[in-house]
Amino acid sequence: MVVSPCAWSHLLPVALKAFSRVRTVDKAVNEKLREAIRARADQHNENIRPHKIEEGVQVWLYLDRVKEGYARKLAHMWHGPFRVIEMIGNHAARLETAGSGYRIFLIVHLSKLKPVRVFPDRPTTVLTVTEDDRTDFDEALLPEDSWENPLESDEYEVDRIAGVRSGRHTRYGRVHREFKVFWKGYDDPSWEDEADLNCGALLHEYERRQTSRNCFDAMQTHEEEGNDP
């Protein structure tokens, strides 16, 4: 497409005017952005107390070196604390590293340091209740014996468990155990399915004794085999 010199004479002022308008808008936007940044910084600084680094204070030191084999994002970058023993001008400090195990150059730029914050005025709560008057919430919420459940009207209390045997098989191949149970107030024991028993503490104690007895029998058998000629 060929544009005649006459057409250019009409288009050029329009283009220059549009370009000038774009520059004006862009300048205004940038100025508003700078004002917003300054306002946000001023608002933030109003609520922040300065932590000045000076001689005698404790500081953390930023070290961006990471040991080989460690992930950088999981490594600790702030090390210390170290004590500032001397200020070097307005932009550096000399640190005390004796006995710390760190082998670093003692003079560090202030941009690599941040003070250790101390909170001497942090509120504390003093307990005025004696130990005997304090409530143990765990004890208050738990039943007296979490092993034992209260008996229903048609249930009998187990006195002791005297034996165990294999019982019925489930459709999935699992074998239920049956326990030989002595009941309180009755002389004759009975074999009961483990699913029908409501005496967790007695079952636990019986299985603990059985495990100890099996371990002892295995040890005795091993000794007898070792003594055979």
Automatic annotation (TrEMBL):
Q: Which domain of life is it from?
A: Eukaryota
* Xref: InterPro entries: Chromo-like_dom_sf, Chromo/chromo_shadow_dom, Chromo_domain
Q: Indicate the segments forming the Chromo domain, all copies.
A: 156-218
Coiled coil (residue ranges) = none
Annotated protein name in UniProt: Chromo domain-containing protein
Q: Which species is this UniProt entry from?
A: Phytophthora palmivora
